[in-house]
What we know:
Blueprint: E1 15-19, E2 22-26, H1 38-50, E3 59-63, H2 75-82, H3 87-106, E4 111-115, E5 118-120, H4 122-129, E6 132-135, E7 140-142, H5 157-165, H6 167-176, E8 180-181, H7 182-187, E9 193-194, H8 197-212, H9 216-228, H10 234-248, H11 252-262
Parallel strand pairs: 2-3, 3-4, 4-6, 5-7, 6-9
Antiparallel strand pairs: 1-2, 7-8
Amino acid sequence: MDRMDPVSFSPRHFRWTFDAGIGRIALDGPERKNPLTFESYAELRDLFRALVYERQVRVIVFASSGGNFCSGGDVHDIIAPLTKMGMPELLNFTRMTGDLVKAMRHCPQPIIAAVDGVSVGAGAIVAMASDIRYATPEAKTAFLFNRVGLAGCDMGACAMLPRIIGQGRASELLFFGRTMSAEEGKAWGYFNEIVAADQLDNHATEAARKLAAGPSFANGITKNQLNMEWDMSLDTAIEAEAQAQAICMQTKDFERAYKAFVAKEKPVFEGD
């Protein structure tokens, strides 16, 4: 998938809607708490890769469905076949799942995860790889790879989770595979906010509307710098931000904001 029409895009393995700059994703297997399959992994990866080139989509909401976010890799469709694969096939799979996280981080659009109920395994990774996370009090997050005999270093967990909640807390979750409650997640900085289940979708959508109304090109630069500056010294990061901000100062949105301020009006950003 090299280019994507956000209006007509019709994925086969999850639900997608687009309206007013907001793309909305929801996995569609509520009877099994929305597991991922080989096909949905790949299709999600391709979607996020295509979003790099898509200006109409300004923000993504990754929603819950049927009271749950995602139960991770499907036991029958993924885990059972993996036990019978050789190393080349296994490595193809683990690289493909990692490519989903890379695509989520590399797309310029902010991603909001609206987490209700179960968010475990690869489902926890998808939420972790998002930019903003809202949860209901019923949210249960577990990086449970250890509990199925695997390492906790899956899909970037050892790189990203410590940066979000700290090394010690991340180590505990990854070594024990235990469940993190919504309250813990909020206290540790994993969740930005806890909202009632019947308000979760509206809350995430309202946040998405605010982001969609903002300067989308500049927001994409912010996301890019948040990614790149993990590996930079302070001096390098300050220089990179100077260059990034100079680029944004050449946008029409920057000029629009100035003119709106002078006219005592609210700026209308167009992402250019």
